[in-house]
Structure formats: structure tokens, C-alpha cells
């Protein structure tokens, strides 16, 4: 069948993207789903920094590629051997397919699936190969999803069935922003009630980390960003103190607020200066967790002696260390109960034809989450 899709042919084109047009809207051929795959009618998909990092070239991927991973849609066709899903099911996509067979999966850490990571790096489906084609070449898949399209073939190991009463534009955010931000707090760092928390970077992940910290019972939640216009929303979501990261003596100001440093600090900006600040404002005995994905050549350094002498902990969190089939339904139920007001993150909805302009807004840090409605 044919599908309209946003194809990236070349990384590193200059901003503004509304002018350079890195994403081209094309008609592509889409194969039928193979074994343990389904055909999705994509209904909504969020714009994420993981997509932007491929567009700007900081995360190298094989070209050409249809981007997009924070997607929600409806199943319209089943491949061979699919028994856990039905046509008409509403699903949200998760961007690391879990094979269930590798060591990481067997240890209960599907976000680190070895086979999923390999297929994602190669721009292929979990079972191998590609399902997207133009007239003269194959088109690579982004994180096994390639959701910037009308239709997508995805593995059943990349989707979670969700409550059909929640709108597609809201449920899409649970595929990345919610699982990564909330999961970093409750799964990776495992913060304790009554603790102090700091979040550096108020994009979609950082704002979800705020909600996760409030949900987990943090007593004080400090937020730091380069854009003070985001502070109003941060406070609505649970922040108690907000600081401009460019302010003079910001490190000392924050440490004074929480008596020497925060118990848990989350770096969600994906930038070395943000990580350096995160480590500096973490208290003795505290934990610094990063969800950011900076350029692979960027390096972060700190005084090694502090790890032992101050009993520090530094953690990385990928996909919020989540188990999608367990966590996504829980988070959706918390949203329905009002404990995770994810709907407040939705800055705007756009069409597929407006996608380059949307990435300009994301790159400037002017939005929490933009969703493409298909």
C-alpha cells in the first residue's frame, strides 16, 4: 500500500528548518506486516529531541529515514502469529522493541534489549529488513516505528494496548515523554518520599520528571531552565522553586535553597553544561541521574574523589528504565485519576505538512510537546 510520510534524506541541514526543509513529505510504498507485526493507522505522534538529534546530525542514523517514535494509532491489519492484539485496538508505540530473548530482557530490563538496540541502530525492524520503499530505494526505519506517516508497520514487541477512551494526541506522549521522565524518577532513581529533587531542563522529559517527583512524594522540587517562560507550567505541575540557569551564582543559590544540595538531581537537557550543574548541586550522598542524549563525542568530567568521599551516585536512565507492558497502563490510569496531568504538556497540534516548522519551535526550546495529528 501507499502512505504519505516525512522522509529525512540528509542530516545537518541548517536552521530554520521551515526554510531548509530537511523533512520531505513523500508517497512511499509500505509492505504488509510480517510475522509478529501489525499495520497501524497513525493518529498522533509527538515531536521529540530524539528525532531532532537525527535531523541536526548529533545522532547518526542511516539515510534516508522516516523519523518519529512517540506515536499512537489504531491497528488495521495483523501479521502472521499475532495473538495478543486485534484489529481496532488502540496502541502506543515504545521506541525500544523488546525481543524477550536476550540477557537484558531476561533480566527484566527491556529498555536495554540487545537485539532491539541493534535493529534500531541499523534502521531495520526487530525481525530484520525494511518495510518502507520509494521507487528506487529502501527507506530506513526510525527506532522500529517511523511514525511521521499515515501508516506504519511495527513489531508487536514495540506496542502497548491502551485505553481507547483517552485521546490519541494525549496517549501518544506515554510512548516516550511520560515513560522516560516519570520512569527516571520512580524506576531509575527510586526517590524517597520527603526528599528534595532538582530537574535541569524543562522540555517534555523534564516536565514529566516534575510530575513523577510530585507523585513520588518529593517535599521540594527545584526546576532549572534557560527559558523562564516555562516556569509557570512547571509550578502548575508541582515545582516549588524555579531558577534561570543563566543567573549568576546559580549553583550556590540552589544549594542554599536545599541546605547543601538536592537529594536527587535529574539532567534532562542532553547538554554537558547541564550535567555539570546537575552534579554540582547534588548533595553529599545524593544521586545524579541523566536522561539526556548529547552528541556521542561530548564528555562529562567531575572530581573522581567525590564519588567515594561523598558517597555520590551517578546514573543513566534510558526510556525511564521502564517495562512498557507494566508501566504504560499504570501511568495512563494515574492520568485518568488526575495524578499525572499529561494533557498540560500539549503545547500545540500541527499537521504533517507543518512538521519542519514544528521542529524549529522544539529546537528553540519554546514548547513542551507538539503533536502531529494525522
Question: What is the structure about, briefly put?
Answer:
This protein has 374 residues and is an alpha/beta fold.
Record keyword descriptors for this entry:
374 residues; alpha/beta; Quinone Oxidoreductase, Chain A, domain 1; Rossmann fold; 2 domains; seven-stranded mixed β-sheet
Structure report:
The protein is an alpha/beta fold and 374 residues long. The protein has two domains: 2-175 and 341-373, Quinone Oxidoreductase, Chain A, domain 1 (Alpha-Beta Complex), CATH 3.90.180.10; 179-318, 3-Layer(aba) Sandwich (Rossmann fold), CATH 3.40.50. The protein has 13 helices and 18 strands. The chain has helices at 17-20, 49-55, 103-106, 114-122, 168-171, 177-189, 204-215, 231-237, 250-257, 272-280, 305-309, 324-337, 355-363; strands at residues 2-8, 23-30, 37-46, 65-66, 70-78, 90-93, 132-133, 138-141, 151-155, 159-161, 196-200, 220-225, 241-244, 262-267, 282-290, 313-316, 346-350, 369-373. The strands form three sheets. Strands 3, 5, 6, 9, 10, 17 and 18 form a seven-stranded mixed β-sheet that branches. A six-stranded parallel β-sheet has the order 13-12-11-14-15-16, sandwiched between helices. Strand 7 and strand 8 form a beta hairpin. Helix 6 (177-189) packs across helix 7 (204-215). It is globular, with a radius of gyration of 20 Å. The two termini are 17 Å apart. The mean pLDDT is 96.
